[in-house]
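Supplementary Note 3. Input sequence used for the single-chain structure prediction.
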Amino acid sequence: MSLIVNKGEDVTLESFHDVAWKGNPVEIGSEAIRKMQLARDELDSFIRETDTPIYGVTTGYAGRSNVVLSLKERENQAATPPHAPMVAFGRELPQRVVRGIIFSRLANFLDGHSAISPDIAIGVANMLDGRPLPTLSEQGQGGAGEILGLSPVFFDLATAASLLEKDTLSLINGAPCAAALVADATLAFSNRLQMAGELYALAAAAFCVHPDHFSNTLGVSWNNPHDAWALDTMRELLGGGDFGVPLKQQVPTSFRIIPRVLGQAHRVMIHAKEVSGFALGAVTDNPLVSKGRVINNGGFHDVQATAAMDEITACAANFCILSGRLEARITEQPLMMESIHGDNLTPFGFMPSVITGYEEEIRLLATHTLIPAGGASGYGANDVSSPVFHAWSKQERASALLEASFAALLIIIDECIRRTKTRLPRVLDEWRQLVSDVRSADED
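The predicted structure, written as discrete structure tokens, is reproduced below.
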């Protein structure tokens, strides 16, 4: 079923998930078409009646922004698809992200703020009908704003359409890439946070951690709602802590800080959802058309999206490091040491080294993504690059390393539980079944 959108507020994290990740098509509603046509008519009237220069509409682009164009020059500029900025190449973004960018682009259109021709906006929405989408390079995105990213996405549409003044700018200006990238990272991190909670509960069960380490009393004492969420999550997953084996008090620090690390990640996820909501519903067009005014602005530079993704990368690094410590402590248990130093040498003794490799790689990614070096992004007014693509790339690579470290930890946990015959709650036993399935396939 198509998602019908009539206003910018309809572009939310939930609808983004449905469109970008689940592949639902999108239809622009009649109310939005009415508002867009009204704004288009107002812009056309404004152009005819004013001598005020309007960037990219009655003037040239970039270095020619101070050159007022004749009517013929305006028409020629408007009719030219955005071919020149299609220069970035390298590793391609996943198609779900490209879908997300196209969907995010609609937020600028629906309330008339971009003054785009309605038929062009409808063409953008129709790109989400399941057809193959243009490819977009994840690398080489060092432009001021997002025109290097948006031009290849909308070039074919612009080539086939009858473009009027500002239509091209409405397609390739603003920050829909930032909105889509941070939303994509947020959705993925939300899933990995759930995965982390379940896996760390499984680790605690394997190590026979006493449930008092996750007491609700700590949730009150620590005075932090995110830590309280983590403690509640651990207790729920572990049940009553009846594992059928003796439980341990004062376990290693790596186990005791699990709720704190999960709590911080929960705070990051909540903040990332907030930033995603702001970005998806934002009108970042330049120039912005609002209430009869045309306003030049820097809305295309979303620093908050970058910062939110950096926090996600940092959480992934912490999870990876913590996984390595948990794996080492579990491996040191007597029954596990037999499999490492006994007569029949097994691979389990080498698994901590594997996670160490992931740790060191992920540490290189867990850095602040700063505004790129001044003057490096282009000429004239284009003197600062947008860092959002770089931040997304780092969290994406960090997330892959995190999942690898989770897999390594799960292998060790499964072997430990097999040897100690620990009894697990049903939710956690489903995780072990994944490993059992892999073992069975390997044995076949």
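The longest strand covers residues 3-5. The beta strands are 3-5, 26-28, 288-290, 293-295.
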